């Protein structure tokens, strides 16, 4: 406090009676103001380090004002949400479901044809312009073949499908191969942006016609932007059945006794429900119940819209021959195994 009180004073008016030789200590410090000030300066005290008067109070007051303003700003924007258990539901998958989801995604990525398609595109992009269209046309059916074959290689690698009897797997392939190939093609194009390539569009239009390709482009745009959802939905659709596959004969006790095509449709229903449960809980986890419901309904609608593309695509002889070849190849692999 001594240094603070006297640092700004003119100390020349204070003269040491002992010629500046005072011993300044705790007992004698009050006897000579001049020597006491010299000792303060000698040990490094500096008046430039003084805080301005009342600065700490000013800082605290400003901080309090800032906190009050921030609180009022937050309260003015806050809204009290109604207690709606459905819209606020944030259901989580259990550990087993998370593990299955992760394994399915890794399995799909292992069979995904994107890198192979990118390599083929890189090859024809380096060709001279007059040869580029011809090379791309030759690659078109190869690319579409990958859409179909890769998705079923993925499905066959999933244990739930591999555990089914061979006849059930064969019937599911025959039933769903067109739908699965179209859905996987839309997913791969959306992720790889292959449909944006003018050369690809040109050769596809030449093969399938402009109206069908334009419809397919719209279907690609309507696809889910969540890649995880798209991959899971492919698996859900792979276990899809129809009425002509499940025709129960009911005995006198009301029990199902026989089926026309599937040996155990209840097992297939349970598998499909398992993945439906996972995909829906995942969407709830991502965006809440309401958005998950709308998202799932959108997936179903978009899958139904694919039906028009599938029916028209089957009218293309090259396309139909390719799909039948894929089906035959998978049937042969089932017989071998």
Can you put this structure into words, describing what you see?
This protein is mostly helical. The chain folds into two domains: 1-76, 2-Layer Sandwich (Erythroid Transcription Factor GATA-1, Chain A); 95-336, Retinoid X Receptor (Orthogonal Bundle). The chain is 69% helix and 1% strand. It has 14 helices and two strands, in the order αααααααααααββααα. β1 (249-250) and β2 form a beta hairpin.
Order of helices and strands: HHHHHHHHHHHEEHHH
What percent strand? under 5%
Share of helical residues: 55-70%
Specify the overall morphology.
elongated
Low-confidence stretches: 78-89
Cα-atom radius of gyration: 38 Å
CATH level 1 name of the largest domain: Mainly Alpha
For the largest beta-sheet, the strand count, sense and barrel status come to: 2 strands, antiparallel
Q: What topology, given as strand order, has the largest sheet?
A: 1-2
Tally of contiguous helical segments: 14
Structural category is: mainly alpha
Q: What is the CATH-assigned architecture of the largest domain?
A: Orthogonal Bundle
CATH T-level topology of the largest domain: Retinoid X Receptor
Span between N and C termini? 95 Å
**CATH superfamily of the largest domain, please?**
Retinoid X Receptor
Count all strands and give the number.
2
Q: What's the mean pLDDT score?
A: 75
């Amino acid at each position: 406090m001594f240094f603070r009180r006297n640092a700004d004073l003119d100390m020349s008016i204070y003269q040491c009676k002992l010629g500046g030789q005072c011993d300044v200590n705790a007992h004698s410090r009050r006897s000579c103001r001049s020597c006491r000030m010299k000792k303060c300066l000698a040990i490094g005290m500096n008046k430039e380090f003084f805080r301005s008067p009342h600065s700490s109070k000013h800082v605290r007051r400003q901080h309090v004002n800032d906190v009050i303003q921030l609180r009022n700003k937050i309260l003015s924007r806050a809204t009290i949400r109604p207690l709606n258990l459905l819209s606020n539901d944030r259901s989580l998958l259990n550990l087993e479901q998370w593990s299955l989801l992760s394994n399915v995604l890794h399995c799909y990525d292992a069979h995904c044809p994107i890198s192979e398609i990118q390599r083929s595109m890189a090859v024809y992009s380096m060709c001279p312009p007059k040869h580029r269209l011809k090379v791309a046309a030759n690659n078109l059916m190869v690319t579409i073949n990958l859409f179909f074959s890769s998705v079923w290689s993925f499905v066959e690698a999933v244990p739930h499908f591999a555990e089914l009897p061979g006849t059930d797997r064969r019937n599911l392939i025959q039933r769903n191969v067109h739908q699965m190939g179209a859905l996987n093609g839309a997913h791969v194009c959306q992720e790889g942006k292959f449909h944006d390539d003018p050369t690809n569009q040109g050769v596809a239009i030449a093969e399938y016609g402009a109206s069908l390709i334009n419809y397919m482009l719209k279907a690609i745009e309507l696809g889910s932007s969540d890649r995880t959802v798209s991959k899971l939905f492919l698996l859900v659709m792979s276990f899809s059945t129809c009425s002509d596959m499940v025709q129960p004969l009911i005995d006198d006790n009301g029990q199902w006794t026989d089926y026309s095509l599937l040996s155990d449709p209840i097992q297939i229903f349970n598998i499909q429900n398992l993945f439906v449960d996972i995909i829906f809980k995942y969407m709830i986890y991502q965006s809440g119940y309401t958005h998950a419901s709308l998202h799932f309904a959108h997936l179903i609608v978009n899958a139904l819209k694919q039906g028009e593309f599938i029916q028209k695509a089957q009218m293309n002889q090259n396309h139909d021959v390719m799909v039948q070849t894929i089906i035959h190849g998978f049937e042969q692999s089932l017989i071998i195994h």
